[in-house]
Amino acid sequence: MYLTLLNGTGYAFSVDDYMELRTKHRLMGALVGTANTKGWSPNQSTLPVELTKFETQLILDEGIALLVNKSKTFSTSPTPKELAEYKADLKERLEGQADALKGEKLRETERYMDKILLGKRNKLLKQGLSTEAAALDGEDVLKEVADNFKFDLQNALMEVPCQHLSKHTAEIIPGPIVDTSCISFVKAP
């Protein structure tokens, strides 16, 4: 397991790593990410998990994880190839969302097809188009919905911070981050 060094302490970006820390080692940390687009709220916190300096040091001392520094990699600009790969991956994920939303819209239309056809036929009859109303069928409605479907990027779901997917380099931090030599323990009588 790897913890990422940020602001002098360890952060866990992987759900699996965080669950192992909680269940096996009883280390809580603090969820500091946000899923709320309107600002940070403690009730809606998500990954990453910030560990205290003492939790991080305990994890290092017990050999549970290694602490890595990725600041050099993340402070450099991506190469044109990396940027192109990221943009292609993002485009693929957005297209997948659009396809899933369009499929759901068509399934929802099929579910209420009887009501939709009744409403469209009544509208055509009020306009005096009885032949068009009689010729209207479900396939026409589905084709109209599919043709008029527009995926607005403003409504796209974006990923929350998580484990770094792409390859990157990191430097393992060997030394302690907390000086525990000045801590004295007093035994209870």
From TrEMBL:
A Pfam family annotated for this UniProt entry: TSEN34_N
**Would the keyword Lyase turn up in this protein's UniProt record?**
yes
Describe the location of the TSEN34 N-terminal domain by residue ranges: 3-69
Give the GO terms filed under biological process for this record: tRNA-type intron splice site recognition and cleavage
List the Gene Ontology MF annotations in alphabetical order. tRNA-intron lyase activity
The UniProt keyword set, sorted, is:
Lyase
Q: What is the name listed in the Swiss-Prot or TrEMBL entry for this protein?
A: Uncharacterized protein Tsen34
Species name? Drosophila pseudoobscura pseudoobscura
> The organism's lineage?
Eukaryota, Metazoa, Ecdysozoa, Arthropoda, Hexapoda
